[in-house]
Write a structure and sequence with these properties.
By secondary structure, the chain is mainly beta. The chain folds into 3 domains: 50 residues, no CATH class; 42 residues, no CATH class; 119 residues, Jelly Rolls (Sandwich). Helix content is 5%, strand content 37%. The protein has 1 helix and 18 strands. Strands 9, 11, 12, 14 and 17 form a 5-stranded antiparallel sheet that branches. Strand 1 and strand 2 form a beta hairpin.
């Protein structure tokens, strides 16, 4: 089966047996498809059977376990073509977009919510939530992060995030003094919940602020794999 794909034309001929070529036209596009001799098909099958399937797992006819496949990476600029990466002929070599050999990449999605304004010092409140937001779909949670516009000083900034009324942490999320992000916290947060159902409700509570400068501009980011 032959296919040549352009924006204006898809040339397609299923198992065209014989000699010579078939020409198809659509507007200003012309595609020429080589017909296939039956003997060539048999020779090709034998050649594929003889390939090293460790190196060429994507064309294996007989293989124990999964056969690798290509996925399209619209941002990849890898060059040149080899066993693990293929640039389609219809895409200019100077433009991004390639087929990459291997399993599909894990794609994470992030929900970001603002939990204060940018200028008002944040206060401790264990009862009233600083913000409420909901999961737009079910997901497997990877991590939760927090950031501030103004860093706390004198003490760490500590917050808790609840999902459907229950804390998500066994060790709460914190931001160290003079820092603006939980990524650099000296005591990393530990999640106790990783399964997020569709439309789950998230609420944010602040349990401690900086003793000299409280901190301003709180944002919370929930990152996971969409199911």
């Amino acid at each position: 089966m032959s296919r040549i794909i352009y924006r204006q034309l898809i040339g397609h001929e299923d198992l065209s047996l014989g000699q010579g070529k078939i020409v198809q036209e659509r507007g200003d596009r012309t595609v020429s498809i080589q017909q296939i001799e039956l003997e060539f098909i048999f020779r090709t099958v034998d050649e594929i059977k003889a390939l090293d399937y460790v190196r060429y797992g994507h064309v294996a006819l007989y293989k124990v376990g999964p056969v690798f496949q290509y996925y399209f990476d619209s941002l990849s600029m890898a060059v040149p073509d080899d066993v693990t990466v293929i640039k389609p002929n219809s895409i200019l070599s100077s433009l991004p977009g390639r087929y990459i050999l291997g399993p599909l990449p894990t794609i994470y999605d992030t929900i970001i919510a603002s939990a204060s304004d940018e200028d008002t010092p944040i206060t401790v409140d264990l009862v009233t939530t600083k913000t409420t937001f909901r999961a737009p779909y079910p997901m497997v949670l990877a991590y939760v992060r927090a950031s501030l516009t103004t860093a706390p000083t004198g003490a760490s900034f500590i917050l808790d995030v609840h999902m459907n009324g229950i804390t998500m942490f066994s060790t709460l999320l914190s931001i160290d003094p003079t820092e603006k992000t939980s990524v650099t916290a000296s005591v990393p947060a530990v999640l106790s919940v990783t399964s997020v159902p569709d439309d789950a409700e998230f609420t944010v509570f602040v349990t401690q602020v900086g003793s000299t400068i409280a901190g301003t501009g709180l944002k919370v980011a929930v990152t996971g794999i969409k199911l």
